């Protein structure tokens, strides 16, 4: 017995490495890194004039409705859409595609198309979630969890696409669990859901692992799956054999060379904080950080904010940014107040 224990100790590390290497070898994964720009291709440069509009009114309306920056320069047959939020970029890209196809580009039409596209994105999120669970062969997932899986497509973690990362972790977990003779289906399920806490639409006080565990419990997931989600950053005790596998696979997926960019996450957090700071002021309807955070564009409610108040608001926000935030260079704070009078002839 003593000899068997000694032999096991000697071969344990070797066997563990063998399992991990075989698992990685069997999982081919794409390495997708998030950027902050999308390129929209156009058939001819004549369309650029239409998109800009008379005295730039169309491009201003597009930027105000979508919250991203449109760069129309001398790049042949291309328009660059720049923004840190992937959902906003996708809404802007789809809206522009519809407008170019339709040919009618004017401020009223732009608003109508952008609002329609926002509704369509919600349907697309559900579609992405359903396609992902079908591809991975995961059954009986709650519709809300499917929606969250779809939302991962528009979220990145340190520059690595969150859905891509979760799919990779799910595949690694299933292979590793099968190698070790554990329940591969449960491991795959936990691997896919391990980061759902990151896509919860409300800003939580809890860390994402514990929030993910609470959401999984709420939607009646298996206790082993819930524990694996909560324990993958050692924030609660591991109670099943699947939990350490999830933790290991998360580390494998995130620590590959080129998989992540540390700077990306801190940059996006800074821009989100900048927007949150401006929206905390009364009368602010929408707020967009553009030009990599060098400009803050704020749209205010014209009924509650007068012209004098708008200039004071611009000053107050700039002072608050100076006191509370750290940033390189300077930030231009632009407050836009627009009067609209709408009536219907019946």
Give short descriptive properties of this protein.
single chain, 346 residues, mainly alpha, Ribosomal Protein S8, Chain: A, domain 1, Hypothetical protein af1432, Alpha-Beta Plaits, 3 domains, 3-stranded antiparallel β-sheet, 3-stranded mixed β-sheet, 57% helix
Q: In summary, what is this structure?
A:
With 346 residues, this protein is mainly α. The protein has helices spanning 2-26, 46-52, 57-66, 86-102, 107-136, 143-151, 162-179, 184-193, 208-218, 223-231, 242-255, 262-279, 307-324; strands spanning 37-41, 69-71, 78-82, 156-157, 160-161, 284-290, 295-300, 332-337.
Q: In terms of topology, how is this protein built?
A:
Blueprint: H1 2-26, E1 37-41, H2 46-52, H3 57-66, E2 69-71, E3 78-82, H4 86-102, H5 107-136, H6 143-151, E4 156-157, E5 160-161, H7 162-179, H8 184-193, H9 208-218, H10 223-231, H11 242-255, H12 262-279, E6 284-290, E7 295-300, H13 307-324, E8 332-337
Parallel strand pairs: 7-8
Antiparallel strand pairs: 1-3, 2-3, 4-5, 6-7
Strand order of the main beta sheet, please?
Answer: 1-3-2
CATH architecture of the largest domain: Orthogonal Bundle
Biggest sheet record: 3 strands, antiparallel
Share of helical residues: 55-70%
> What's the overall average pLDDT, rounded?
84
Structural class: mainly alpha
User: According to CATH, what is the class of the largest domain?
Assistant: Mainly Alpha
Query: How far is the first residue's CA from the last residue's CA?
Result: 94 Å
Radius of gyration: 24 Å
Name the shape in a single word: elongated
* Number of DSSP E strands: 8
> How many structural units, i.e. domains?
3
Spans of at least 5 consecutive residues whose pLDDT stays below 50 are none
